Amino acid sequence: MLSEKITRNRLSLYTLFALLMLWSYFLFFVPTFDLDESLYRRVAEEMKLNGQLWKPTWDGQALNHKPPILYWLIALTSWLFDGPLKPVSIFSARLPSLLASLGILFSLQKMGARFSKPWIAPGLFLTALFPLITSVSVIFDPLQTLLLLPSLFIPTLLFAEKRKPTTQEEWLWILSLFAGTAVKGLNG
Fold it and tell me: Would you call 125 helix, strand, or coil by DSSP?
């Protein structure tokens, strides 16, 4: 039993290390490449450089397509790592998505540990690898997914334990839905 747990933890660590190596390549060397990724980076850069954090713009034109939270995170990351007067680097543009992806990975592993079946935790961990591997760009989805995880976990846990939610679980569920919507908006 103990050796099986050590083996699972070792597999998780090796997988995480491999993913971090893959991510570090994308963080530093692959330029932003699709329209959305370039758009998010550019909007955050304009907000940062012109100092108008409440008015997202793209080439000077107002952009009210999405809530500004991801733009703010990219601008803040750039301000911390690139400096206040420099453009947004590839690293700064992608770091919020990377951190959210790692949060998803660890949340799924912890959620799996709440269940009595020993295969669930590594299964959830491995299930999270696909979105982590494919989220190599500046996208809303990892951040939104991380914020929506409680709204997915709580009903699953309630169903598995055959019980009603506590007041704390109800509030966490509501806040999770609100936060996920605040990041991506209602139009997805």
Answer: helix
Q: How many whole angstroms separate alpha carbon 96 and alpha carbon 50?
A: 21
Task: Give the pLDDT confidence score for residue 157 in this predicted structure.
Answer: 84
Concatenating the DSSP letter of every residue in 78-103 gives HHHHT-TTSPPPHHHHHHHHHHHHHH
Other Cβ atoms less than 10 A from the Cβ of 67: the count is 16
3-state secondary structure of 179: helix
Query: 3-state class of 175 per DSSP?
Result: helix
CA distance 106 to 155: 19
Helix, strand or coil for residue 158? helix
Residues 6 or more apart whose Cβ sits within 8 Å of residue 26: 94, 136, 137
Strand segments, DSSP code E, in the chain are 57-58, 61-62
Residue 76 pLDDT greater than 90, yes or no = yes
CA distance 19 to 14: 9
pTM equals 0.75
Handedness of CA 74, 95, 104, 33 (dihedral sign): positive
How do residues 89-133 score in pLDDT, each as one tens digit?
Answer: 988 988 888 888 888 877 877 776 666 555 555 555 555 555 555
